[in-house]
Design brief:
The structure holds 2 protein chains of 2 kinds. Chain A is an alpha+beta fold. Chain A has helices at residues 18-28, 81-84, 111-114, 137-140, 153-157, 174-181, 237-241, and strands at residues 4-9, 37-38, 46-47, 51-58, 65-72, 90-92, 99-101, 122-123, 130-131, 163-167, 198-200. Chain A contains 7 helices and 11 strands. In chain A, the strands form 5 sheets. A 3-stranded mixed β-sheet of chain A has the order 10-1-11. In chain A, a hairpin with a 6-residue loop joins strand 6 and strand 7. Chain B is mainly α. Helices cover 67% and strands 2% of the residues of chain B. The longest helix of chain B is centred in the C-terminal third of the chain and has 29 residues, at 258-286. Chain B is elongated. Classes of the chains: A alpha+beta, B mainly alpha. Strand 4 (51-58) of chain A pairs antiparallel with strand 1 (235-239) of chain B, so a sheet runs across the interface.
Chain lengths: 243, 325
């Protein structure tokens, strides 16, 4: 069983919103139609997005850090949004685990958005259907694109390579290895939704120095900070070897 | 959650319609075993069914305003195996159909006797139709309530009390309406309906209070820490990823001031329970049509407030991602 997913590395995300804009650009131009905007340059701009980057300040001043948090559909392995859909418009693909909405069947009742604890679904205010991340399903299988470009638009756009894409069920895939070795975790594990997307935590490189390592065991004078004086009268190694 | 008036009207109107049908069938069951005698039973049940059916139709009509694509609403019967919403969409017309049949049978007096017993049991066929209607009525109550109660991370709703409340509040308003209706059509039933309306209203007060107490001390499982997966007690959102607002900031927040939100609770407790019980007692003593209809009207307005509060109180975990709304 394949389960395609994203792995998002919070350690390297710089919050540039490139994934947001490239997602919007690709998907608003896609076969499913535009993702509508209202007042894009006005006072209260609003619109449909599949992906958003939020920022959280963590810690007590002055020990704070800003974590940028890209947020999109997590393509849960137990998606709570799918069984509640009365029409069957929301479904999870057997072949690759992508959760999709059939825009021609959706009646716009919003029930699936209530059933998603992550708020990953947004109703398009003009088309009146529920929309969400498709993992660029219209792109990743497109054989007219060169092989390296068959990835979601957000993954290709990320300048710091904070987004990885692949099959989390294949144990030796890049994403699985990264999740395993870099502490990948799921959001809100308490609801048993088993999100396929994983996040990698902030990581700090630290070295542990024990106190006895601060004193050089081979220090001949047993005094730190003092260097052995050179004898002025005798020939140095330089005097002998230089001519 | 943002309370949508279409859904508030849907749930309260069909609740009253269902309650009224249950009241009519209660009267018929009593009459069948000669506990009560009704002067003009055919008309009484028939017009009562018409009122119940009208409430159900208006409720159903109101629900369409909640849909982005009402013209595709027929599709929503597809997933009855998994979706309570789909089940409701099937149960509501099925129940409406049986209310219609029930009313028609009484109006035209079609009521063949099926089993002949020594004790004369009047009008058997309509009793059987009524039993099917009652079963469908309760099925509809359960479907409506389970739409909310099945969402486990909406912890305010995820409780058997939600189902109990929907059944009791709908039935209470239906019986109150039946009391007022009987004051016009069959005054001999005022005491029967009024007593039941009072009993059910007071029982609903107990169960609704229980859910209010439960929700007041609810401990939410999701926190900002589990939402973004960072273990620190001091996390402050600096940007929500949007400037003006989005579906997420509109759909999941009630948007009312805290003072208004809190006062709605006391308003509905007074209007749904206290005032109607007093008015029912007064109205039953005088058989006053005006007082009894006022009791129903006040209780229904109170139920609108109750349903508003039911939605507004539910705290969706996605709100954790939108801290500065």
């Amino acid at each position: 069983m394949t389960q395609l997913a994203l792995v998002i590395d919070l350690n390297v995300c710089v919050g540039c919103h490139a994934c947001v804009t490239s997602c919007k650009q690709w998907n608003t131009s896609g076969p499913a139609g535009s993702m509508s905007d209202d007042n894009p340059y006005g006072k209260d701009p609003t619109g449909t997005f599949f992906n958003r980057v939020q920022s959280f300040e963590i810690g007590d001043y002055p020990n704070t850090e800003l974590v940028h948090f890209p947020k999109s559909c997590l393509h849960c392995e137990e998606p709570p949004c799918v069984p509640v859909c009365p029409t069957g418009a929301s479904y999870k693909r057997e072949e690759d685990g992508i959760v999709l909405v059939d825009y021609d069947k959706c009646i716009g009742c919003k029930y699936c958005s209530w059933a998603c604890p992550y708020g990953a679904r947004e109703l398009d205010e003009h088309q009146k259907v529920m929309k969400k991340c498709t993992l660029c399903v219209d792109r990743i299988y497109d054989e007219s694109l060169p092989e390296p470009e068959r990835k979601p638009a957000c993954v290709l756009a990320c300048p710091t390579n904070a987004r990885l894409f692949g099959d989390v069920h294949e144990s030796e895939s890049e994403v699985s290895v990264t999740i395993r070795e870099s502490g990948g975790y799921q959001l809100m594990p308490e609801w048993g939704t088993k999100p396929a997307n994983h996040y990698l935590p902030r990581r700090k490189t630290k070295i542990k120095i024990h106190e006895d390592e601060l004193i050089r065991a081979d220090n001949p004078l047993k005094k730190e900070g003092l260097k052995p004086k050179t004898v002025v009268d005798e020939a140095t190694l330089d005097d002998v070897t230089s001519w | 959650m943002h309370p949508a008036f279409s859904v508030i009207f849907l749930t309260t109107l069909i609740g009253t319609g269902q309650g009224l049908f249950l009241a009519l069938f209660t009267a018929q069951s009593y009459a069948a075993v000669d506990f009560v005698t009704i002067q003009n039973p055919g008309q009484f049940y028939a017009y009562g069914s018409v009122i119940a059916l009208l409430l159900l139709i208006v409720g159903l009509f109101s629900s369409f305003f909640h849909l982005g694509h009402p013209e595709r609403a027929w599709r929503s019967i597809a997933r009855w195996r998994t979706s309570w919403l789909s089940r409701e969409v099937i149960a509501l017309p099925a129940f409406m159909f049986f209310v219609f049949i029930y009313g028609v049978m009484h109006f035209f007096g079609w009521d063949p006797t099926i089993i002949t017993t020594e004790q004369p049991l009047q009008g058997q066929m309509s009793l059987y139709v009524g039993i099917i209607g009652t079963v469908l009525c309760f099925a509809l109550f359960v479907c409506t309530a389970m739409i909310y109660a099945c969402l486990k991370f909406l912890q305010e709703w995820h409780s058997p009390l939600t189902v109990v409340n929907y059944i009791l509040l709908g039935t209470a308003s239906g019986f109150t309406l039946a009391t007022a209706y009987s004051a016009v059509m069959a005054p001999e039933l005022v005491t029967l309906f009024g007593t039941w309306a009072t009993i059910i209203t007071l029982t609903a007060l107990v169960s609704r209070s229980a859910s209010l107490i439960r929700n007041a001390r609810i401990k939410h499982k999701s926190t900002l820490q589990t939402a973004i997966g960072v273990r620190h007690s001091n996390i402050e959102q600096k940007a929500m990823g949007l400037m003006g607002g989005s579906f997420n900031t509109r759909e999941f927040f009630h948007g009312a001031k805290m003072g208004i939100f809190r006062s709605i609770k006391w308003i509905f407790l007074v209007l749904v329970f206290l005032v109607p019980v007093v008015l029912l007692a007064t109205g039953m003593r005088n058989s006053s049509i005006d007082v009894l209809f006022t009791a129903f009207a006040i209780q229904y307005i109170g139920l609108l407030a109750e349903r508003w509060f039911f939605f507004a109180q539910a705290n969706h975990p996605q709100n954790l991602y939108y801290q500065t709304v």
